[in-house]
């Protein structure tokens, strides 16, 4: 397989993964609807930074270590599960503190951009399944006559670029419809669904074999 073929092949796989609704998409949409474009962009950049980190880690074999070592994988899995449960629980707790007619939480929060970027980054880094994806898929697209690290980072950049385009579409769409989406009932529904999804994913990840 040539380098060009590897980029095109991996790009197709990464595109399908990117547009499939998941945790990253939910986080970016929630930020766009409840806190605005700046925080949504920050969340997206955090997610993309996590993608690049996992791509580089897979290229140098760190992800392979997580796959081979049950202890290392379980530690990361439990830490990631705890973070998701905390994140989802915090969202649901905030909902219970505000009356149904309140639109609290729909404006940038203190330290919003940095906090949003950190949330996107940590959610991605602490998800061992992202590492499992990279360690199982990435080696198939590494031509033998190329640098594993260099090619791994290049493929991760392709994934990151596709993610940025997808997130840009999501953010622009959410911002365009923000007046409707920011209605208290709609906004609280988005918050509630996101909180339950994070909590559920965290609990599922905490289970053996999760």
Automatic annotation (TrEMBL):
Which parts of the chain span the membrane according to its record? 40-68, 75-93, 148-177
Q: Which GO terms describe its cellular component?
A: plasma membrane
Main location per the UniProt record:
membrane
User: What span is annotated as the signal peptide, if there is one?
Assistant: none
List UniProt keywords, sorted A-Z. Answer: Cell membrane, Membrane, Transmembrane, Transmembrane helix
Q: Which Pfam families match?
A: LysE
Spell out the InterPro entries in the cross-references: LeuE-type
What PANTHER family does its record include?
A: ARGININE EXPORTER PROTEIN ARGO, ARGININE EXPORTER PROTEIN ARGO-RELATED
Protein name according to UniProt? Threonine/homoserine/homoserine lactone efflux protein
| Organism of derivation | Geodermatophilus siccatus
């Amino acid at each position: 397989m040539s380098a060009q073929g590897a980029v095109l092949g991996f790009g197709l796989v990464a595109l399908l993964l990117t547009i499939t609704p998941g945790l990253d998409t939910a986080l970016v949409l929630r930020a766009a609807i409840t806190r605005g474009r700046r925080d949504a962009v920050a969340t997206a950049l955090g997610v993309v930074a996590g993608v690049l980190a996992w791509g580089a880690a897979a290229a140098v074999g760190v992800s392979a270590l997580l796959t081979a070592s049950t202890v290392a994988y379980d530690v990361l899995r439990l830490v990631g599960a705890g973070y998701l449960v905390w994140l989802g629980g915090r969202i649901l707790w905030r909902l219970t503190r505000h009356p149904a007619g309140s639109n609290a939480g729909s404006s940038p929060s203190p330290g919003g951009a940095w906090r949003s970027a950190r949330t996107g980054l940590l959610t991605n880094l602490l998800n061992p399944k992202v590492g499992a994806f990279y360690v199982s898929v990435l080696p198939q697209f590494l031509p033998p006559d190329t640098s594993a690290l260099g090619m791994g980072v290049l493929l991760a950049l392709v994934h990151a670029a596709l993610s940025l385009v997808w997130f840009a579409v999501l953010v622009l769409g959410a911002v365009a419809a923000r007046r409707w989406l920011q209605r208290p009932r709609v906004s609280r529904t988005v918050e509630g669904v996101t909180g339950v999804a994070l909590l559920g994913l965290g609990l599922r990840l905490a289970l053996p074999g999760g």
